[in-house]
């Protein structure tokens, strides 16, 4: 029975792959996209897929790369490391892609990088921000800055706003704690005092127990990070506990405001900038028309990642070794949807443009830089 | 393509070991373990601990496989005087406590950032090891199931008081099964760590436990063939739907959501029409004179 089960399994897999291999040969340049189509933060993930597709469509509409068109193959990571690895294995082995664009937290992107490195494949990171992602030079390139950059800027920003004491509230994951560590270091370097660091477990129905310490400490401000639904629940708990300190956050665009009236003027933050370029505005209009809503920032990071990949392929060729050689050249002087992109020697974004926001009249409004 | 088939067979073999481990606990003994991911995680974290502290891989495997049954005995200790339904709560909580400990104590194996471990560079070797582990656990489980001990475990599953009146100590039997099945799951965890090359707390959520439960309930928890069939169906559903989007031309996100819907639908149908699973346990008949 055991043998027949395994044989059946192998037959199914092989027969499934037979058609795929043939298809990959027809599609001139297959490019993989791994996103959490199910699980957490699906809408941002879909925006990322749309951004990658928009860039591929643009390249294909202009005749492709030396006559060959890009074929985007999307796989679901379910926001689970195991499923992410399965998706990457399928893309590398069955679809023969040389490079994948990844949307997902560091917990998904890091294992994919871990397997891509010995396989000699390329990973373009469009959303994860753990500083540890910089440990894969020549394999992993990011179109958004990692936490060490954004965290330091957040700490500087809060200190320059005249805040003296603060409590940190972040999700207990690589993104949250990594960003908190860097922001706290920058904040204290300016003379600020961190009263408490709270790292909450994601997906809780109520965060009042976590926030009660803030009520007692009465900080000048709360510094934070988080994702959609969780942030809504955290805000609700803060409002119900009567915590009225202002919030300074990283990436306010991925926060979900629970009560716009209460939040008026209370939520401020910095986000990766450069999205006011003519290209970004054109893309925003195009995406709004196509999908019915303005896209989130990941749309633009994915757009830039796919465009840079296309440029690298055009310069050097389609193999992973060619792309590795071509990417540092492609990025030179590149003006993308997220502004100009500069990479350090590891392929990580430095000197990114930053935008500042404040929540007013029910939406995030541009605010002056400190 | 071959590499992907090899990878998929490896993963199916690893999850099959986990399913057989749960078969011993639930299908044979009636222990409702909702923390089946815990021994799996302990095995993987033994490996991760070794990697993070410069110890050799065999030491990591030893740590994981030794620690898991000890932890198992500790976890079930408070459940010794409770009805089996409460085992679910105790084991569920223990699994989460372990994950949160790994998340919040970075000195063990990197905390939320996780840690890289040695990854098998030879995929064929990984598959052979996984299949060997599966074969060993399968033979062991068959042997236990067919032995007098297996018959007593079935009695325990059906009626703990009856088992006690037959002169057996139910908790002793439960301890024995827990220790053996947690060793199996920990060995699967060690292998999984070396297949993926990276371990972090997010790999061991409650969701993973319910993937195993889905497979076991689907196939039939009381038979080894059933749990194997359930695991193969669940894993192949995940793998095969990756090809459906491209073949059908349907949007990838729609196919991904349909896959989740299919899991739920299959479970409901099984509960309604095959509550014993696809391969239910057959009544065993013994000739009393030959026993």
From TrEMBL, chain A:
It comes from Acidisoma silvae. It comes from the Bacteria. Keywords: Amino-acid transport, Signal, Transport. Residues 29-356 form the Leucine-binding protein domain. One of its GO terms (biological process) is amino acid transport. Belongs to the leucine-binding protein family. Residues 1-24 form the signal peptide. Pfam families: Peripla_BP_6 (PF13458). This is ABC transporter substrate-binding protein.
From TrEMBL, chain B:
It comes from the Bacteria. Its main location: membrane. GO terms for molecular function: branched-chain amino acid transmembrane transporter activity. One of its GO terms (cellular component) is plasma membrane. It is found in: Cell membrane. Signal peptide: none annotated. InterPro entries: ABC_transp_permease, LivM-like. PANTHER family: HIGH-AFFINITY BRANCHED-CHAIN AMINO ACID TRANSPORT PROTEIN BRAE, HIGH-AFFINITY BRANCHED-CHAIN AMINO ACID TRANSPORT SYSTEM PERMEASE. This is Branched-chain amino acid ABC transporter permease.
């Amino acid at each position: 029975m055991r043998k027949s089960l395994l044989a059946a399994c192998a037959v199914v897999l092989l027969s499934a792959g037979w058609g795929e291999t043939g298809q990959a040969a027809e599609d001139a340049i297959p490019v993989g996209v791994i996103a959490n189509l199910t699980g957490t933060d699906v809408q941002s993930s879909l925006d990322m897929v749309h951004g990658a597709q928009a860039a591929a469509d643009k390249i294909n509409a202009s005749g492709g790369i030396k006559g060959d068109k890009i074929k985007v193959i999307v796989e679901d990571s379910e926001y689970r490391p195991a499923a992410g690895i399965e998706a990457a294995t399928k893309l590398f082995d069955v679809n023969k892609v040389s490079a994948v664009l990844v949307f997902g937290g560091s917990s998904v992107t890091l294992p994919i990088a871990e397997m891509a490195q010995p396989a000699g494949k390329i990973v373009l990171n469009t959303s994860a921000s753990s500083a540890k992602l910089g440990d894969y030079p020549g394999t992993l390139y990011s179109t958004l800055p990692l936490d060490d950059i954004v965290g330091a800027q957040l700490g500087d920003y809060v200190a320059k706003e005249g805040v003296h004491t603060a409590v940190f509230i972040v999700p207990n994951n690589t993104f949250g704690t990594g960003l908190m560590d860097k922001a706290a270091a920058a904040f204290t370097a300016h003379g600020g005092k961190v009263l408490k660091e709270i790292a909450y477990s994601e997906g809780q129905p109520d965060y009042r127990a976590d926030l009660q310490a803030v009520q007692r400490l009465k900080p000048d401000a709360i510094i934070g990070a988080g994702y959609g639904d969780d942030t809504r629940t955290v805000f609700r708990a803060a409002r119900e506990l009567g915590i009225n300190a202002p919030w300074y956050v990283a990436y306010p665009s991925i926060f979900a405001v629970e009560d716009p009236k209460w939040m008026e003027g209370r939520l401020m933050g910095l986000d990766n900038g450069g999205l006011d370029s003519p290209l970004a505005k054109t893309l925003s209009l195009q995406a709004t028309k196509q999908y019915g809503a303005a896209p989130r920032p990941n749309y633009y990071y994915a757009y830039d990642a796919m465009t840079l990949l296309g440029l690298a392929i055009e310069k050097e060729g389609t193999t992973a070794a060619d792309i590795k050689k071509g990417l540092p050249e492609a990025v030179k002087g590149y003006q993308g949807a997220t502004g100009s992109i500069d990479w350090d020697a590891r392929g990580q974004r430095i000197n990114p443009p930053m935008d500042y926001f404040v929540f007013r009249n029910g939406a995030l409004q541009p605010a002056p830089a400190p | 393509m071959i590499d992907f088939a090899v990878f998929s067979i490896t993963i199916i073999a690893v999850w099959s070991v986990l399913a057989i481990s749960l078969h011993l606990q639930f299908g044979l003994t009636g222990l409702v373990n909702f923390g089946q991911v815990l021994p799996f995680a302990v095995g993987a974290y033994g490996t991760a601990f070794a990697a993070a502290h410069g110890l050799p891989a065999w030491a990591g495997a030893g740590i994981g496989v030794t620690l898991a049954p000890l932890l198992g005995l500790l976890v079930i200790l408070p459940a010794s005087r409770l009805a089996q339904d409460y085992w679910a709560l105790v084991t569920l909580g223990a699994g989460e406590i372990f994950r949160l400990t790994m998340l919040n104590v970075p000195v063990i194996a990197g905390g939320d950032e996780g840690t890289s471990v040695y990854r098998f560079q030879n995929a064929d070797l990984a598959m052979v090891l996984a299949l060997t582990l599966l074969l060993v656990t399968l033979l062991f489980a068959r042997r236990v199931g067919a032995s007098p001990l297996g018959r007593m475990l079935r009695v325990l599953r059906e009626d703990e008081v009856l088992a006690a009146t037959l002169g057996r100590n139910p908790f002793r039997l439960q301890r024995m099964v827990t220790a053996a099945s947690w060793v199996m799951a920990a060995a699967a965890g060690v292998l999984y760590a070396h297949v993926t090359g990276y371990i972090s707390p997010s790999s061991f959520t409650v969701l993973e436990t319910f993937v195993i439960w889905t497979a076991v309930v689907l196939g039939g928890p009381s038979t080894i063939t059933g749990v194997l069939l359930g695991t193969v169906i669940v894993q192949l559903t995940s793998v095969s739907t990756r090809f459906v989007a491209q073949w059908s031309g349907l949007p990838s996100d729609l196919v991904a959501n349909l896959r989740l819907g299919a899991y739920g639908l299959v479970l409901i149908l099984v509960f309604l029409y095959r509550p014993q699973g696809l391969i239910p346990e057959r009544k065993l008949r013994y000739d009393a004179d030959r026993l």
